[in-house]
Amino acid sequence: METQNRILVACGGLMLTSAFAATQGTLGATSQGSFTNTFNGTTAPQVQILGLSDSIVTPATGEIPQREGAANPQSLYGSADYFCVVNTGGGAVTLNVTADQYGAGQMPAATAAGGSVLTYVLSMHIVGNHTVGRSFTSADPGWTIPAGAAATSAAACGSGNVRKAAFHHAIDGAGLKGAPLPANGNVYIGTVTITATPE
Fold first, then answer.
1. How far is 164 from 197, CA to CA, in rounded Å?
2. How far apart are CA 101 and CA 23, in angstroms?
3. Are residues 80 and 67 in contact, defined by beta-carbon separation less than 8 angstroms?
4. Could you give the C-alpha distances from 184 to 75, 116, 181, in angstroms and in order?
5. Cross-strand pairs, 48
6. Nearest to residue 57, comparing CAs of 182, 141, 160?
């Protein structure tokens, strides 16, 4: 199951379609339609990603914790929200999180219309358990949500079970640090694709 997330610095819809479609009759002296009966005896778990939304970071965006609920979290300038991962079998789910572009340090990147590139931090963790999560790079895009952490149906999602966050940053001699987005008139856009696979 694959879906996309656009970051303005800046997730997308999900549509499921049947392999078969009933045909409707037309108005006339006679009319004919058809439908398919499917008896599905498979028990393989199915997965779904839903509740995604686009992330927007502006020069006025304040600092938020990179990991929500941590005792001493690193705070960076960015935007965070929640989405839901479903596994109907209740097992673990592997997420492959890839950006459409990357920059320095193999970090996700967003590009302005003029061609300038801005790298950013993209991180996720389980809601209520900040220790189960990670940040993503081109070299390491995978993350496994453990069994029991995914919802077993869309109705059980609530407000979401995964927190995602996009942060603007700066890098100095000490490593990553928070920095506001510069007010340079540029709009940087990058898209992230999440592919879920049941384990």
1. 18
2. 42
3. no
4. 23, 11, 9
5. 86
6. 182
Residue 79 to residue 141: CA distance in whole angstroms: 20
Of 9, 108, 104, which is closest to residue 59 (Cα–Cα)? 9
Q: Look at strands 175-178 and 93-99 and give their pairing.
A: unpaired
Closest CA to 170 of 109, 114, 119: 119
The pLDDT value recorded for residue 26 is 93
Task: Look at the chain and count its residues.
Answer: 199
> Is the pLDDT reported for residue 160 higher than 90?
yes
pTM of model > 0.90: no
Q: List the structure tokens of 99.
A: 């950006």
Three-state secondary structure call for residue 52:
coil
Give the Cα separation of 72 and 20 in Å (integer): 53
- Residue 51: what residue type? G
With beta carbons less than 8 A apart as the criterion, state whether 126 and 49 touch: no
pLDDT in tens, 88-109: 999 999 999 999 999 988 999 9
